[in-house]
Each structure stands twice: as C-alpha cells, then as structure tokens.
Amino acid sequence: MEQAGILGLGCYLPSRKMTNKDLEKLVDTSDEWIMTRTGIKERRIAPKESAASDLGVEAAKLAIKDARLKPEDIDLIIVATVTGDMAFPSTSCIIQDKIGAINAAAFDINAACSGFVFGITIAKQFVDSGLYKNILVIGAEKMTSLVDWTDRSTCVLFGDGSGACIVGKSKDRQIASYFIGCDGSGSNLLRLPAGGSRIPATEDTVKNKLHFLKMEGNEVFKLAVKVMADAANKAITKAGLLCSDINLLIPHQANIRILLAVAKKLGLPEEKIFLNIEKYGNMSSASTAVALAEANKDGRIKKGDNVCLVAFGSGLTYGAVVIKW
Ligand code: ACO
C-alpha cells in the first residue's frame, strides 16, 4: 500500500573547512580536547555572503533531481532553520522563488536541531491526508553566523550545511512511525537572547554579545541522552519494532559522547549508528538531513532496512522517525 515515504534526498556542504587546529589560533583550546570531548575534527564554514536559503537551495535542487521531479511538481516547502535569512519573510519563501517552485506553498518551522525530524513528521500528515503530493523538507543552517568566536565552550561545536528530502506517496522508504515532543522548562538552556520581541536589538545588546547563542552545555548533555533514547524508543515501538530491529540509527550529530550513550541505552552496537560529526560538527536542523542523505549515498542503508532518525534541540524539542527503506 502506498503511504508517505522518501522520494529523493540531497545535501550540500560549503567547501571551506575549519579544523580544530585553526580554532587553536582563535581560542584557548586544543585538537585533543575537542576530539575527546565532542568527536569533532573539523566543520564547514559558509561564505560571508551566503545565508541559510543559499545553502538550502543547493540541497533542494539535488533532492528534487533525485526524486526525478521538476521544481513545478513541488506543492509544499517546509524549511527547518534557526538561522533563517531574516526574521521574516520565511526562508522557505525565498527558496521557493530561487528554485522556481511556483506551485508550492511554503513555511518555516523552528524546532532547532529537531527541525528536520519535525518537518518530516508534518510532511507525512499532509501526504497521507492527500492534501499535498510532493513536499520538499529542508534543514538549512548557517550556525557559524550565531557563534561567538571568542567563547571556546560553544564555538568549537557548530558548522554550516543543508540537507533536503522529498516526501510523497511511495511503496518503499515509507515513514512507518514518528514521535515528537517538547520540554519547555528547558527553554533557557540553549538560546539566542536578543533580536526577538523580548529583547530587541540595541547598541547594548550588541555590546553585551546577546546576539550570539548561549548554552548550558552540561545540562543539555544530560537531558539529551534521556530524551533522544526515549524518543527513539517511542517511535520504534509505534512502528511495531524492537530496538534490535533497527539497522541504522541516524542521530542528530551533537556530541559523540551523547550519541554513544544513546546507542548504549537503546542496546545498539556502535556499527549501527551513523556518524559524520567528525567532519561537520553540529549543524542543528541540517545535521540529521545531511546524515540521512549521506548514509543513503554511502550505501549504509539497504532495501528493507529499518532506519531511525532521532534528534533533540533547543526548546527543548525532541523527536524520532522510523523509515522502512
Ligand atoms: N577547549 C578547552 N577547554 C574547554 C573548552 C574548549 N573548547 N570548552 C570548555 N572547556 C573547559 C571548561 O572551561 C572547563 O574548564 P574548568 O574545569 O577549568 O572550568 C572544562 O573544559 C570542562 O568543561 P565542561 O563544560 O564541563 O565540559 P564538558 O565535558 O561538559 O563538554 C560540551 C562541554 C562539549 C559543550 C558538552 O557539555 C556538550 O556537548 N554538551 C551538549 C551540547 C549539545 O549537544 N548541544 C546541542 C544542542 S545544539 C542546538 O540544539 C541548536
């Protein structure tokens, strides 16, 4: 029976690499500290003139091509981002114009690093209800535009990139289940304080560096392990599966220690986790999007495999999706 599934995938990474050695010249840190504490070796940096939409457009074009569609065939665009080009208009509208998806409605969602998982979940509802046929879901982030390059506790973690998928009716790669959740009591743990309606931009907010992201790393770490494992478990159970039935877990690439702890909680061996954090760091909503596209391209997913995408992010948001490949 046909139901919502993945029709095409694509991802894009800016070519400029920033290594841990490069960061050693900016802040008091070391390659050894960053590798052992986070698993990150390098990250990509988008050019100064590029915004999230420019990154998203590249991944979108590849996903549309991969699905053997034309931009005019897309009837909805959902962009997950916390680094949109502007507060408004939405980045999805800008991408709609740039790729010529003239028949598409478009909106952005803000679920931080869980955004791509939330986007797939929303797309599934629209496809299964019959309202839309071909939905472009994009995770696009220029995280380095929010980073305080003098704060060693955060600047080593993030990178830029984008990934996209087309969700439509399909006989394979079906979205078997999903679970999304939120714990708003943790909303202070990871935030960009100024520039919104609470603290609009002033000279003081700039002086006090309130336009850069702030994070309580230790607290986020502890919660991340719990909520990611819970979300994955819920989606896997909803799909009528056991954790041992999962062939590949594709987690949000936040910190290698978090990911290994989640895998341990789920009873999954390391070889069943897809990891690319070493190359790209944390790209927020683009992390799971890029990882899914890369895992497929690298032949890590085979027909019939059960794939679980799981993420957590600022909010705190969390969610998981099981795809039967
Ligand atoms: N280089 C060297 N030393 C550092 C660095 C660095 N880059 N950063 C921090 N340190 C120091 C600290 O100052 C501290 O020193 P002190 O003991 O003298 O005070 C020491 O290292 C230990 O610091 P901790 O914060 O306890 O280090 P921890 O092992 O917790 O690692 C990290 C920090 C990597 C941030 C970790 O807490 C983490 O990964 N947290 C989760 C972050 C995350 O996943 N965020 C994802 C969400 S992103 C999103 O949703 C948009």
Account of the protein in words:
By secondary structure, the chain is of the alpha/beta class. It has two domains: 3-171, Peroxisomal Thiolase, Chain A, domain 1, CATH 3.40.47.10; 177-324, Peroxisomal Thiolase, Chain A, domain 1 (3-Layer(aba) Sandwich). The chain has helices at residues 20-24, 31-38, 52-66, 91-99, 115-129, 152-155, 203-207, 217-238, 256-266, 277-280, 285-297; strands at 3-12, 17-19, 42-44, 76-80, 105-109, 135-142, 160-170, 174-182, 190-191, 214-215, 248-251, 306-313, 317-324. The chain contains eleven helices and 13 strands. The strands form four sheets. A five-stranded mixed sheet has the order 1-7-6-4-5, with helices on both faces. A four-stranded mixed sheet has the order 8-13-12-11, sandwiched between helices. The structure holds acetyl coenzyme *A. Acetyl coenzyme *A binds at residues 29, 33-34, 37-38, 112-113, 152-153, 156, 190, 215, 217-218, 220-221, 224, 254-255, 258, 282, 284, 313-314.
Ordered list of secondary-structure elements with their pairings:
Elements: E1 3-12, E2 17-19, H1 20-24, H2 31-38, E3 42-44, H3 52-66, E4 76-80, H4 91-99, E5 105-109, H5 115-129, E6 135-142, H6 152-155, E7 160-170, E8 174-182, E9 190-191, H7 203-207, E10 214-215, H8 217-238, E11 248-251, H9 256-266, H10 277-280, H11 285-297, E12 306-313, E13 317-324
Parallel strand pairs: 4-5, 4-6, 11-12
Antiparallel strand pairs: 1-7, 2-3, 6-7, 8-13, 9-10, 12-13
Helix pairs in contact: 3-4, 8-9
Bound molecules: acetyl coenzyme *A.
Acetyl coenzyme *A binds near residues 254 and 258.
